[in-house]
Amino acid sequence: MSALLLARVQAHDLLRRRLALALLISMPLAFFLVTFTTETSDHTWSSMSGAIGLGFAVAGAAFFAMLAARGVDPRLVLAGWRPWQLIAGRLLMLYTLAAVIGAGFLAVMWLLWAPPRPAALILAIVATALVSVPVGLAVAAVLPRELEGTLIVIVLIGMQMSVPTGSSAGPYTPLWGAQRLTEVAAKGGDPVTPVLHALGWAAAVLLVAALAWRRRLRIGRPAKRPVVEAQHH
Amino acid sequence: MTATRTPLLAAHGIRKRYGRRVALDGASVQVYAGEAVALTGENGSGKTTLLRICAGLLSPDAGTVYRDGRVGYCPQEPGVFDHLTIAEHLELFDGAGEGAQLLRELGLPSTNRTVARELSGGSRQKLNLALAVLGAPGVLLLDEPYQGFDRGTYIDFWRHVQAWRDEGRAVLVVTHALTDLDRVDRIVELTPVSRPADATVGAP
Predict the structure, then answer these.
(1) Mean pLDDT, chain A, whole residue set
(2) Chain B residue whose CA is closest to A74
(3) Of B131, B79, B78, B83, which Cα lies nearest the Cα of B103?
């Protein structure tokens, strides 16, 4: 019983959902291309849109992976798994998925755009994935209902599109760091603060996910001695 | 004769409320090694709630649960991953040997590469049951585990219950079927909390 085993089996689960997988891969590309074709300046907006698309894809994958496990995880814990192994296994699988989708998305951006500061763009993609995966896990752990949870994921990830980086509310939103890094990729600037922002958000949301899921999977401790009622056989 | 042995499972004075609805109020059940007990009662009498509390998956508002050893729990709705095969489930639950054998005896080979969501209702239920008995748990909590079974599998299931009992395990089976009551050692009947009696224990 290891996180690696769970990650591998969960990857099999995802690979069998071919349509879902195709949609996950195409989401950031769709978000990027639809704005890229109309944007004439530095492509900050289209790269940010693509990053948001990646955020939707991996947060959605995380949310539904966790929901699908809701009925099985308690049984796995009864069978000897520890809650942290289940979370770690899913994180491993989801970050691998995010790396694959993000790499494909970056390759397409490279071909079409050639950003002035590619390292910052890579950081933007990494920051998006870093935050979005635990966002999906945390929502599933706190609000494990399909419709309500999906709406919350849409709000948490999608709100970034309506918050300019310079606004006072920006730093309080989960993907502000990633958003700022797409600006750094195009126009230059300090990458350290947005990277720290992403790391902080990722850690905080991951902590919420881990604590909430652990609480859901807590197995009640048995009493030390039975209270036995007299029975007649 | 009054029993003085220690049960493998003993839930006592269990009270559980969901919002304003009281699901259980003072329910008790105990199962000894080498005993098969049926948990019966009308819809809404709290059978599933009591089973989940016995497994430790749900906390009671009041009362105590004693469990001796590992618990195998078979939920009413198959708790399986829709897109994983039988072999992958057995691998996850760390029980390739025992689970594969039970599935073979129930007519579902573990080499079957069909994913769970494409299995028939009865086959999903067989997988659900097999996952509960992996790891040789001393206490088996089975919540209507034979839904969708054909007649032959249903009879096989009860043969296995007898075998588990003979091995010294404690088996608690939720059932609605009156015909099942002859197959167990004891019956515990739950009545809805709005009724005068909360939980009654009787012999078949």
Answers:
(1) 92
(2) B57
(3) B131
- Kindly state the tokens that stand for A194: 């947005």
Beta bridge partner(s), residue B41 = B190
Identify which of B151, B116, B118 has the alpha carbon closest to the alpha carbon of residue B130.
B116
Q: For residues A142 and A212, what is the distance between their CA atoms, to the nearest angstrom? A: 6
Chain B residues with beta carbon closer than 8 angstroms to that of A230? 2-3
pTM of the model: 0.88
Contact residues on chain B for A76, CB-CB shorter than 8 A: 92-93
Question: B163-194 burial, b for 16+ CB within 10 Å, e for fewer?
Answer: ebbeeebbbbbbbeeeebeebbbbbbbbbbbe
Residues of B in contact with A86 (CB under 8 A): none
The answer to whether the CB of A121 falls within 8 A of the CB of A46 is: no
Length of chain B: 204
CB-count exposure of residue A107 (10 Å: 0-12, 13-18, 19+)? exposed
In one letter, which amino acid is B12?
H
Task: Give one DSSP letter per residue of A19-38, joined into a string.
Answer: HHHHHHHHHHHHHHHHHHTT
Distance, CA of B119 to chain centre: 21
Q: Which amino acid is at B152?
A: G
User: Under a CB-based contact definition with an 8 Å cutoff, are residues A152 and A85 in contact?
Assistant: no
With pLDDT > 70 as the criterion, what percentage of chain A qualifies? 97
| Vertex A68 angle, CA A65 and A69, to 5° | 90
Q: How many other CB atoms sit within 10 Å of the CB of residue B204?
A: 10
User: A182 is written with which tokens?
Assistant: 């797409």
Could you count the other beta carbons within 10 Å of the beta carbon of residue A23? 14
Q: What is the pLDDT of residue A2?
A: 87
Side chain identity, residue A187:
K
In the stretch 49-68 of chain A, residues with CB closer than 8 A to chain B read 68
Residue in the structure block whose two tokens are 């078949």: B204
How many Cβ atoms from other residues are within 10 Å of residue A37's Cβ? 10
CA distance between the termini of chain B: 17
What residues have CB less than 8 Å from A71, skipping those under 6 apart?
B75, B77, B78, B79, B80
pLDDT band at residue B88, thresholds of 50, 70 and 90? very high
The Cα–Cα gap between B188 and A134 comes to 44
pLDDT beyond 80 at A16 = yes
